[in-house]
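Hi P.,

Sorry for the delay on this. The queue was packed all week, but I finally got your sequence through. Input first:
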Amino acid sequence: MKALTTILLLLLSNTFMTLAWYGHLKFNQMKWTSQLGVVAIIFISWGIALFEYCFQVPANRIGFKNYGGPFSLIELKVIQEVITLVVFSVFTLLVFKTETFRWNHIIGFGFLVLAVYFIFKK
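Then the structure:
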């Protein structure tokens, strides 16, 4: 159960992270944000990123072996990176419809999934 909870919290965390890091690139299409300067955008993104931490920190504490979780620190990091790529890919395809994935992107993502395999191999 701790593994599933950790993964779900990481999924939520990475959703907010992706919104904070890349969502602002669409702000110019929204009337209320189109005239904001970079400092205002930083503060908005920072506010969104707060929610990332609200999920990331508990995910790591619940999932980490030293706190009774099932994952080593390295395993947690690799899981988080793969979740980041999945969330980023979905976000990119849904929000930035002009972006496309090429074969080399897919192969690179495949190698990262292989990294998960090798990290978890005993």
